[in-house]
Specification:
Thiol Ester Dehydrase, Chain A, alpha+beta, 2 domains
Length: 242
């Protein structure tokens, strides 16, 4: 068993939006980067897995935003893994300011895939992971399955070079960017807390056509990205606290 690991970051100008605060994409990017750094430091990150023709992919996430940090603000990102099963491992995060006030919390679920077959691998026999488990509970409830939506607006996007990551598929942040870009600016200007959930369902690759759908249901923004064959690639919801 182990404890949480904490990393320090400073919000940079390239990471803020028009509000002079770190954008939603930047915040999620922080934790995805730290997930990789922490896994590598413990010997089960991308560096090791890629040498074995394997890789980590994120499957689901649930995130509570209490506020967005300001430009040049110093933040502390703590992370720990508290569960792994047949196909998924659970990695948690809290982000706090210099006064130790909570800014943001998240629970993420990850799978290991075989790079050649693109299939998820069984994690139950990975006994070496046991020593890295932390008994601290997750700070957010586990992400739920998100249902299909009836979009009122859609946008078409062709996957290009800049959308692709080291796994040779569309970067998870790119899906989130496509969805958030459909929101009215008034919602993105709202300083109140909000809750985000994302389900990553299938891969998409260079040249694919993606159709992003958006539906607003009172205080909840719902999204679904499909390919041009009608298969759901990613779904998300944002619940705004007015």
């Amino acid at each position: 068993m182990t404890s949480r690991t904490t990393y320090k970051r400073t919000v940079q100008l390239s990471e803020i939006d028009f509000s002079l605060r770190a954008g939603i994409i930047s915040m999620i990017g922080y934790i995805l980067d730290i997930a990789g750094v922490d896994a590598d430091s413990k010997g089960f990150g991308i560096k090791k897995l890629n040498s074995e023709n394997r890789s980590w992919v994120v499957s689901r996430m649930a995130l509570d935003f209490y506020r967005l940090p300001n430009r040049y603000e110093q933040i502390n990102i703590s992370t720990w893994v508290n569960d792994y099963g047949k196909l998924l491992t659970v990695r948690n995060f809290t982000v706090t300011d210099e006064k130790k006030c909570l800014i943001f919390a998240a629970v993420t679920q990850w799978a290991i895939i075989d790079i050649s077959t693109r299939q998820a691998l069984d994690l139950r026999h990975a006994d070496e992971y046991n020593k890295y488990l932390c008994t601290d509970p997750s700070p957010v409830e586990n992400p739920r399955k998100i249902a299909a939506i009836n979009p009122k607006e859609t946008v078409i996007h062709k996957v290009t070079y800049s959308d692709i990551d080291f796994n040779r598929h569309v970067n998870s942040l790119r899906y989130i960017s496509l969805m958030i870009d459909m929101l009215p600016i008034e919602l993105l200007s709202n300083p109140n807390p909000f809750h985000v959930e994302v389900n990553f369902l299938r891969e998409s690759q260079y040249g694919d056509i993606l159709i992003t759908g958006y539906e607003q249901c009172e205080t909840k923004s719902l999204f679904e990205i499909k390919n041009d064959k009608g298969a759901a690639i990613c779904r998300a919801s944002i619940e705004w606290n007015n």
